[in-house]
């Protein structure tokens, strides 16, 4: 188990021994468990003064892998809630590595004990480790150094919201890494790929791990610096301005979750720039929230502060064609899609009746009336059950109308 202490108060002198001590109001612990799936974050305790998490033991060694950041969003929520004076990370692991940088992003200094026996998956993992430590306010060698380091802290500057705060606090990088995995095969034959508005470089990193020469452009200074610090080629610039200077430079372009940030006139301009920047035969892949996915509509789209509107994949394809590009792949056509209609009014409840001939017997055989009434009620109940089952089956068919993946994918190609 590793611990992260937060909520450090002013150092105080203990009256009994005169030694400087440090009080902490909050403890975050992380336990590694071999039995947990890689994507799971189990909350084992959540109280005003403790947050205990458990994750897969796979994430204990330091890796060059964005998926190891799976506890970031939970810890960030806690830090934003309590606004601690400092963050002390007692042990660096894969899961706690990025917390060294998360604190300063939130305006909270991070103090860290470097891992004397840290486990690194490879040289890239060591680069990630060194980059994170470079962002720490101080590196500690013993508990006795904590109080002086805390006493030397300056009051944090007043932060205002910028997109980098959303990028590193609310965007789940581990989830984004998994969501982009199906996009990678589109670029297997590319030699040079550019990721537009690449953030900290999640997709750039994934392509480079597969031997593709990939780079990115990102306007956020913090995100671009983050990516460069872990060895990625990321230019800090406006994506459209950067793309406008590229003439036939790339055989692959990625626009992942970018178009929904743009109004229609800017998107038209982007399509023209893409056609200009691609080599003949080159491809551009667009990944964006699918407006036909009910989950995209209801769960996440408007959480991003800069989302402008949904774009239907048919419209993206049409805009690309208008810019001289050829449609190459459309996720709606790759996945069977059935629109099921349904009645506005519910069907009438079925009723069972006793045949007239049988009712005539009731005058001569009173007991038969009781038996027939019970049979009628049973038949009516069975009919209602069958009707409910039909309604459930219909509801399931209708639900398939909206059973889309969260994201749509459109691939276009520049004519050779």
Set out the fold topology.
Layout: E1 2-8, E2 12-13, E3 20-21, E4 24-33, E5 42-47, E6 50-56, H1 72-82, E7 87-89, H2 94-97, H3 99-105, E8 110-112, H4 123-134, E9 138-139, H5 146-151, H6 163-169, H7 173-180, E10 192-196, H8 202-209, E11 213-218, H9 221-229, E12 234-236, H10 239-244, E13 250-256, H11 264-277, E14 278-289, H12 294-300, H13 313-322, E15 326-330, H14 331-334, H15 356-361, H16 366-400, E16 407-413
Parallel strand pairs: 4-6, 7-8, 8-9, 10-11, 10-13, 11-12, 13-14
Antiparallel strand pairs: 1-4, 1-7, 2-3, 5-6, 14-16, 15-16
Structural account:
With 416 residues, the protein is an alpha/beta fold. The chain folds into 3 domains: 2-159, no CATH class; 169-335 and 403-413, 3-Layer(aba) Sandwich (Rossmann fold), CATH 3.40.50.150; 356-400. The chain is 37% helix and 21% strand. It has a 7-stranded mixed β-sheet. It has a 7-stranded mixed β-sheet with strand order 12-11-10-13-14-16-15, sandwiched between helices. The chain is flat and about 105 Å long. Residues 7-23 have low confidence and may be disordered.
Short recap of the structure:
The protein has 416 residues and is an alpha/beta fold. Helices cover 37% and strands 21% of the residues. The chain has three domains: 2-159, no CATH class; 169-335 and 403-413, Rossmann fold (3-Layer(aba) Sandwich), CATH 3.40.50; 356-400.
Throw out a few tags for this protein:
single chain; 416 residues; alpha/beta; Rossmann fold; 3 domains; seven-stranded mixed sheet; 16 helices; 16 strands; 37% helix; flat
How many angstroms separate the termini? 56 Å
Q: Give the domain tally.
A: 3
Radius of gyration: 30 Å
Helix tally equals 16
CATH class division of the largest domain: Alpha Beta
Could you tell me the CATH topology label of the largest domain: Rossmann fold
């Amino acid at each position: 188990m590793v611990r992260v202490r937060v909520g450090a108060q002013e150092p105080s002198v203990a009256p009994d021994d005169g030694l400087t001590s440090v009080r902490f109001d909050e403890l975050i612990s992380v336990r590694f468990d071999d039995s947990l799936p890689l994507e799971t974050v189990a909350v084992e305790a959540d109280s005003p003064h403790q947050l205990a998490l458990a994750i897969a033991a796979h994430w204990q060694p330091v890796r060059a892998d964005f998926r190891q950041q799976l506890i970031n969003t939970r810890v960030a929520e806690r830090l934003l809630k309590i606004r601690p004076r400092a963050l002390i990370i007692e042990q660096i692991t894969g899961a706690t590595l990025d917390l060294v940088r998360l604190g300063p992003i939130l305006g909270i200094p991070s103090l860290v004990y470097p891992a004397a026996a840290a486990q690194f998956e490879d040289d890239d993992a060591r680069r990630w480790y060194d980059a994170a430590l470079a962002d720490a306010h101080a590196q500690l060698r013993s508990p006795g150094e904590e109080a002086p380091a805390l006493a030397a802290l300056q009051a944090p500057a007043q932060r205002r919201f910028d997109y980098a705060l959303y990028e590193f606090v609310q965007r789940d990088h581990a989830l984004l890494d998994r969501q982009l995995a199906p996009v990678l095969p589109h670029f297997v034959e590319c030699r040079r790929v550019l990721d537009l508005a690449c953030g900290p470089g999640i997709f750039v990193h994934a392509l480079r791990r597969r031997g593709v020469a990939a780079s990115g452009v990102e306007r956020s200074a913090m995100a671009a610096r983050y990516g460069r610090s872990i060895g990625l080629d990321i230019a800090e610039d406006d994506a459209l301005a950067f793309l406008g200077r590229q003439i036939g430079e790339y055989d692959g372009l990625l626009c992942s979750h970018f178009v929904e940030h743009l109004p229609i006139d800017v998107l038209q301009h982007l399509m023209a720039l893409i056609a200009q920047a691609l080599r003949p035969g080159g491809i551009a892949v667009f990944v964006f929230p699918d407006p036909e996915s009910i989950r995209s509509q209801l769960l996440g789209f408007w959480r991003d502060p800069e989302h402008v509107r949904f774009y239907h994949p048919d419209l993206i394809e049409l805009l690309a064609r208008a810019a001289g590009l050829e449609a190459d792949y459309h996720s709606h056509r790759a996945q069977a899609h059935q629109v099921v209609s349904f009645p506005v009014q519910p069907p009438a409840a079925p009723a069972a009746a006793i045949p007239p001939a049988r009712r005539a017997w009731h005058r001569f055989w009173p007991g038969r009336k009781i038996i027939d009434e019970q049979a009628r009620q049973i038949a009516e109940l069975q009919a209602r059950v069958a009707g409910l089952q039909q309604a459930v089956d219909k509801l399931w068919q209708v639900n398939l109308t909206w059973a889309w993946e969260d994201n749509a994918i459109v691939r276009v190609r520049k004519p050779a």
